[in-house]
# Entry
Amino acid sequence: MSANAKVIEMTNMVSEDGQGLMYEENLLWEKERSDHPGVDLPEPEGAALRIGVEARDADIGLPQVSEPQALRHFVKMSTWNYSIDHGFFPLGSCTMKHNPRLNEKLARLPGFAHIHPLQPASTVQGAFKVMHELQHWLAELTGLPGVCLSPAAGAHGELAGMMTIKRAHEHKGDTSRKIILAPDSSHGTNPATAVMCGFEVRAIPTKLDGRVTVDSFKEALYATCDKGSDIAGMMVTNPNTCGLFERDIVELADLLHKAGGYFYCDGANFNALVGKVRPGDFGVDVMHINLHKTFSTPHGGGGPGSGPICCTEELAQFMPVPTVIEEGGEFRLETEEDRPKTLGRLKGFHGQFGMHVRALAYMMSHGADGLKQVSEDAVLNANYILSQLKNDYHVPYEGPCMHECLITDKHQKEAGVTTLDLAKALCEHGYHPMTVYFPLVIPGTMLIEPTETESKDSIDRFISVMKGFAADVKAGDTEKFHGFPQSTPRRRLDEVKAARNPVLRWS
Ligand SMILES: *Cc1c(COP(=O)(O)O)cnc(C)c1O
# Structure
């Protein structure tokens, strides 16, 4: 029997969400038989083996398989791509929520899906109207009137926002400001973006309750200059990456503004605030929004992202072009002639238009009240998990959390079971693990974000699986944790080596 059809036996089903991944699947090159061509066509007579001027002098080397073989190969592999449509995906900070299929239906309407960005503006007025409307919703929700939709991901939005800040300082002739403040718990893209823009990053230490305090902020703000006049700005996620709301954010923003810096907010965690709080009201000057997180457009091994930025009127003159503007009932793209201080274009055409359609569909189908409920339910679900797991796992920060909760492996580690073991055990039980070992400020973190789209049943099942792990560890049944996952086609991998030295060539 060939290995390629081998089905690994499923011995005991441990959760309703399934177990492992069932199929072993070899490469197409291992399946193929060169004496069995997949297509049964006679050799063309007298035809030259060439494409254009290039003659083929060797075998083309494609695997010879039939259509059903090829189809099964790719369908099986597609089932290995764990997604939110398979099961619970509690990846903290990433907001893996259900993408309503209504969004997909609308994005596939021919008037949206079949247009071309080079079409004359008069023939795509409807598409421009969608972008204009989305700009309006984002401005309303953030309290920041300048909106640029073109950045293609969160990190790209960060770049757009930080370049906007840099340009604003340059415009004032203030080029000596080189320092960006960022909490030590911040997402890696924040310091990376600041450095890419030519700034230096100074960490603000997170204090015992997981937040930035006014004192630690002042210390960082005035560290090298007593008025803070070397500070270009700060990059802060609120709620922060520990899932906690920065209570002193208004005061921090005031101090920063007095020192002449701008406040960049990483808006990836907007799912906790949408419809409840407008970041512009707590002092934000510019932020990016991950449409593919808060507003449900697909992400994670799937569709493209979209990371629009929203900014104050002051910064709006500097942000990238294009945006969509309305003039006398007609929509058109704003150009560099319209807005001469712009930093220019950061992206071909207008950004990920399909994502704009999906995000607006999501907003309009929820309505203002529905969006508010989204964040209330997301926060409720995270707190429910925290309250159920707090006696089984170490909880580093007291009190309620926002849209994600943080636990650690402190208790289990004493028995030799680590966060990595627990994450692998979740794979065995058919779950995508939570975010692990991030944020870096606490050892062995597990950051869990259930989102509002999970039912109480599915959350309860996850909780009982997590409680089961803790009970097993407590009872001394720890050995099995080092061997998980058992039921997947691949077991424990050296992920770092796989990422650093991928083997991309079959021989
Ligand atoms: C996801 C995320 C980002 C980056 O967004 P991408 O679309 O993945 O580039 C930045 N900051 C935080 C806090 C995030 O969760």
Confidence is low (pLDDT under 50) at residues 1-16. The first strand starts at residue 50 and ends at 51.
